[in-house]
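User: Predict the complex with protoporphyrin IX containing FE.
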Amino acid sequence: TTPDSDKAGLRQRFDPSPSLLVKEAEHARPAPEVTFNELKVEPTFEISTPTMQISLPNDGPFKEKDGNSSDKTQETVTLSMPPPPPMLNRGSEPPRLKPPSLSAPPRPGNGFVRPPPSAAASLRVPVTKPLPNASLAPSSSIMPPGKQVSRKVVLEPGHSPLDWAALTNNPNNHLRGKDAPGDGFLRITPTELKRQNGRKGKDAWTVYQGKVYNITPYVPFHPGGAGEILRGAGKDSVKLFMEVHPWVNWDGMLSECLVGILVSEDEAARGSNGSLDEMD
Ligand code: HEM
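Assistant: Here is the predicted structure with protoporphyrin IX containing FE placed in the model:
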């Protein structure tokens, strides 16, 4: 070979024409695609609607009303099916996993409709803005049936659960109220309890597990609203309370509001002046 032909040969090798490039590119096809061809899998991006063919005998339950006899022994019904989801990894690469940052990590406890029972519920500050007229709020149309919207209300400023906790921390606040003078606990009859219904200047007392509490100071702090908690005024609230929030720590929250215990009329008549201190 001459030097000139050497040059030409080199140029052809290192400065290939576009057609050569294509050829080389074809040769450079990655091996897994060959595997595809060997497996007779046709990589294609077309999305076709698959069909399903069902053969029905003509004299079966689908026979025409007028009894037309047809030469056909079979009728073919073609049903369309929705297209499959497009496959994005049709190439030779294995399917790639999504980066972890794009998928939210699974959160435990998502199935809970209500928060789990805990004493801390009494100190939890509401994170979502409640409905102003929560007791009248209709259930949301986008909520699945059976799941209700919160019945919590907007509390006045300074009436958060933490504000209540601060108030009960000071025993000088006399949260037992004006109807329970002194420090001693009272023995309260059902008749007396009935009178303490929060009306006509009377404090609202209620009963929980045989103990009588003055709920009047707590009413503006109650997350379920005044109307709800006052349903128990002058009577035993345990049933209503347990229906709504059995996890709330009544004793812990209202210990400073304890007025006394509920006794029967007979028991009260046997006692001297109604003070529990007398029993010691
Ligand atoms: C007649 C008795 C009572 C009734 C009918 C009642 C009713 C309600 C209602 C309807 C709610 C809103 C629930 C929601 O949809 O999220 C609520 C919340 C609440 N109530 Fe009562 N309540 C009563 C007594 C009490 C008492 C005595 C206390 C305190 C010892 C109390 C503490 C609370 C607390 C802490 C919440 C918020 C619960 C949470 O954060 O999930 N309730 N109440």
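The domain at 130-136+148-279 is CATH 3.10.120.10 (Flavocytochrome B2; Chain A, domain 1).
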